[in-house]
Amino acid sequence: MRIERLDHVNIVTTKLPEMVTWYEEVLGLKLGARPDFPFPGAWLYSGDHAVVHLVGHEGTPNVGSEVKLKLEHFALSATGLRAFEEKLISCQIQYRKSEVPGSRMIQIHVADPDGNHIHIDFEETEYVANPRNSRNAKSSR
Questions:
Q1: Cβ atoms 11, 52 nearer than 8 A
Q2: What is the pairing mode between strands 49-56 and 9-13?
Q3: Which of 69, 89, 100, 141 could bridge 105 with an S-S bond, Cβ 3.0-4.6 Å?
C-alpha cells in the first residue's frame, strides 16, 4: 500500500450554515452532493473532489474525542494568491502570510468561524511576480 494524498477533512460544528457560507465565500469551495446520512452536514468541493466535510452538531460545541485531537491545522494548495489576499482584505478577515524556509512556498494562514487553523499554500512564483512584494517586505495581518 502507498498513501497518495489526504482525501478530506471532517469538521464537527454547531455553526453549520455559517461554516458552509465561509468555505464557499472565502475559500471558493462549492457545496455539492453528500450521501443521505442520518445527521446534518455538508460536503464542500474543489472541482470534483469533496475536500471539506462538515457535520452539524446541535447544542453545546462538542467536548469529547476532539479534546485529545492533536490536529493543529489543515492545508490546501491553491493558485491566485493576489486575488485571495485582496478578498481577505476586502472581507476584513484576519490572516498571516509567511514563507516556508528552504522551500518555494508562500502560506496564508486563516481561521474559519469555528477557529480551525487553515493554511493555503501558493507557489512562491505568485508572490515574486507581484511587483508590490519584495523579498524583504512581507505583509502580515
A1: yes
A2: parallel
A3: 100
Distant-in-sequence contacts of 130-136, Cβ < 8 A, 24+ apart: 130/81, 130/82
State whether residue 81 is helix, strand or coil.
Answer: helix
Grid cell 493576489 — which residue? 82
Q: 42 forms bridges with which residues in the sheet?
A: 54
CA gap 53, 44 in Å, rounded: 6
pTM score, two decimals? 0.82
- Answer yes or no: are the C-beta atoms of 10 and 62 closer than 8 Å: no
Alpha-carbon span 79 to 31, nearest angstrom: 20
How confident is the model over 24-66, as pLDDT tens digits? 999 999 999 999 999 999 999 999 999 999 999 887 766 555 5
Return d(Cα 42, Cα 55) in angstroms, integer.
Answer: 7
